[in-house]
# Entry
Amino acid sequence: MKKYLINGALALIIGFTYTSCKNNDVDYVPIAQQKTQAYAEAFKEMIGGEVDPNQNWGFETITITDEELAAARAAVRAGTRTSDKEGNLYEDKGYTIPEPIGDAERAAVLEVFNQRGAASYQSLVDWDEFFVQQVYKGTAHYKAKNNGDVLGSDHMDWLCAYDPNTNSDDHIYDFNHGDNQTEQTSDKTGKKFKGITLMVNSSTSRFGFHESESSKVYYYFRMEKINGAYYVGFDYSAEGQNPNQQVDRDYIYNDWIVKICPGKGTPITNVGGGETTDTETITKAKYERKKLMLQGRVFCEDLAKAERRDIDFNDIVFDARIWEVSEVYKETGKSDKVNFLRYEAEICLLAAGGTIPANVANQDVHDLFGVGLTTMVNTVDDNSKVKITWGNSDTTSPVKHFTFDMTELITNNNGDISLDLIPIEVMWTTSDTNDPGIGQMKSVGRLGANVGDVPYKFCVPIGTPWASERNPIVKVYSGFAEWAKDSHAPEPNWGNGSELCYNNDKGCPAGLPMIDEDNNNEAYTIGYTKEKQTWQERTTTTEIETILWQGSRAMEYSASGNNGQNAMVFNSKDIQVGDKLRIYGTKSTGDAKLELKNNESGWQIIADINLSDLNNYKEIDVTEGMVSAMTSTTVNSWGRGCSITKITRWRKTVTTN
# Structure
């Protein structure tokens, strides 16, 4: 079914299907036209006149700003593609663009991936937001079963990330034929970068490539952590039907290599030591913020019977709230950064007095209640009573809650938000009694509420009781007919239905509030904002990098050939098992190394670190042996072929709330 509706327009007739037909032309009136014409006549007869041309049937419209509309449209694009190609806006959105891949980094990666590996590998990280960066296009040639020569990387059309939540492959845009040379420039800083794509709402659980000859996706990937960063290599293969589509694997995952980086960076903290003496703790947190835009209760008439006594507007009854949902990123010392996520309708299905197929927001009404088409739900029982709250939990059949993404509907409606946008669809089925040869006809219609036209639904305050079966709406709510004919007339008293209201054996109090309260007694006024932590509501993960020492120390060969010695001062008590040490600097020789020693215990070696693969920084795990060797308050260094600029401690803490 279509997922759009132009605000203010009644998109009623969507289509027809026929179970049989005749070859000769037959004059007939389409079923939707029959229904709407008969209903319009019955409605006008019921109210005793014409509808006020300005009557909007309680559906308020609010318009978001141009900036909000642009953010919503960007969210729609990101949500449908998962690949965010708008690299010029990465920094505006709070992302740190990865640095270019240098020759030394590429060489270190190839040293690992050029080695023959296992048949399969598992992912080492679980991210839903990450950068993918080109590292290497493979040069290996293969022989197909027809003896044809195949350059593997040329036949790797594109990359994908498999998302188990949707059971689908997310296309990683701009990566084609083993390469990505797309150049982009940041609007914020002017920074230029190449070969980088951001993935959002995706997954790092598995990676694959599409092979051009066999036209299949293969998940032959290997993920490795090298110098603190994560890389994914692919092993080319083709397993088609024909010999030219068949290439055996060599289990060397260097036909295409990319780097993956988390979408959000890691905070850096200085806690003193060495040349760095400032003390600062920087933490980040992510929250979900919801702002209430509109709310109301919607009564619907399905037009199954165009009779005055059956225009009771209880065929579908539901409560709805439209929320603006955003992510808030908090960081010490910085203003909150708010990223728009979506517009979301929170819907509570209350009643189904209709007996024809119907759905609300793409959810089948009768299926939600677990009943057949001929069963009326919460419109005929006399033993329960309606609570004047969100969702009527005391109804005979339990109410049904669900959510519906409104973002695309609102952007297609140029930023106008209304509960009228929530799609409500019904199906009519009939037979032409005058000419059975036409057979059974079906028509799907969308129930709208045109301004100034007869309504197929209207909106009332949440808490308003709905009519029980076979009670015309004009009897249930005094003043309805006058209000329908004159939009300036007082609104009907939505709470005075007495015994005509469903399950209202005690009568309905007058003057019901426009808002209700949730279980925590929080008033849901329009514009009400509530924050809740998302993943941090259960588990808080904090990653902190602490500078232990910072300065400039060159480690070169001495005249005698011994390793150069330079003192470094940092407090070894700050180190514990589970931490990681990061050695920042550059190397000048292929055998570069660094030794950390305890200068109070016979120069006992704490850590012997090979820096031959140093690229920006080298990361090592802190072991029990290292901690036990750090009995002094001063850690000294020996080394060769390198220049060290900083030593940090990286620590991740997980707190369950």
User: Anything to note?
Assistant: The mean pLDDT is 76. Residues 31-47 form the longest helix (17 residues).
